[in-house]
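Here is one chain, start to finish.
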Amino acid sequence: MLKACKFRLYPTRSQITKMERTLDLCRWTYNQTLAYRKNAWENEGKSVSKYETNALLPGWKEDKPELRDVYAQTLQNVQERVDLAFKAFFRRIKAGEEPGYPRFRGKGWYDSFTYPQPEKGGNLVNGMVRLPKIGDIKIKLHRQIEGKIKRLTVRRTATGKWFACFSVETEDVPLPPWKDGAVVGIDVGLESFATFSNGETIANPRFFREEEHELARAQRKLSKAPKGTPDRKKALKVVERVHERIANKRYEFAHQVSHNLVDRFGLIAFEDLNIKGMVHNHCLAKSISDVAWNMLVTLTSYKAASAGSVVVLVDPRNTSKMCSRCGTLIEKSLSDRVHNCTQCGLSMDRDWNAAINILRLGLQSVGTGGRGSPAL
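Its structure:
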C-alpha cells in the first residue's frame, strides 16, 4: 500500500538558489520536450514515446551544459510528466470531454521536481534530507516515516515555502472489523456544509467569504502596483498568503470532519456529485468552490479502510425531491428549504430529507453480510 507523507523543508539561501535553478531547468526541459513532441506530430505525423525523449537528454546537455547540475533521473521524470499530460489529453478526447492540449510552462509556473529513486538520494540523517546535486536540507519530521520510500517530490508553494513529499510503500495491515450498526447518509449543501440522516448538521465555515474583503484589498494594491517593480512583488506575496491561508483552513476543516466521520460510522453514504458541471452555474460557483465537497469525500474515503468504515457514493437524482417516508416526488426550487409531502404530510428540512434518502440508497448499494460490507 502506498501512502504520502509531507514535511516542511528549511533550506538555506544558497540551497534555495539551487532549488529554484533546478525548477527553472526542469521547466526548460518540460517545454523542450513538449515542443519536440508537438512538432513531430504536426510536421511528420509521428507519435513520440517517453523513451525516445529520454534519449534526447544527452544531446541537450551538450548544448546546454547547466542541465548537468540537475539529477539525471529528475530530468527523466520531467519528460514522464509530459508523457502523462499527453495520455490524459487523449483520454479526455476519447471520453468526449474538453480535451485541453498540454500547455507550455511560463516562468514561475513550474513548482516541483521529483527523485524517482530516493534510495540513491533523499536519505534522512539527523534531521536532514539529502537531495542529490543540492545538498543536505533541514527537514521538520513531525512524525515517523514507516515503510520504504519509493519517491520523493520537492514542492515550492506560491508563498515560497518548501515541502518534501514522500511516497512510501507500507505492508498491508489486516483491516479492522466493520463498525456494526453505525450508518449515516450525508447531504452536502451551501446553507449547511453537511446534514446527516440522523438530523445533525455541520455549519458552513465559508472560509473564502471570511477572507474576501481582505483578499479584495490586497488585489487592489496589486493591480495598482506597476509591473516589474518591487512593490508589485510585495503586493503579489500578500495576495498569495491570503489564498494559502484560505486553502489551509479549508484543508484542516475537511481533515477534522472526515476523521470524526470514520471514527463514528461504519457506513458513510455521499452523493456522487458532478462538481465540474455544478460550478458552471456562475451564481453559485464561488460558494460551491469554497465548501470543497470533493475534498471531504476524498479524505473520508482514504481514511475509511483503516478505520473499519466504508464510503459509498450514490446517484444524486431525486434525492432532494423524493419523500423519505412515502417515496413521492415533490418538485422544489433551490429556494424551497422545507420538504412538504402532499401525500403523507411529512414536513421536515429539505437537506435532512435528502440525507435520509442518501442513506437508503447507500444501504441498498452494499447489501448485507460479507467481509466487503458492514453487517446491517
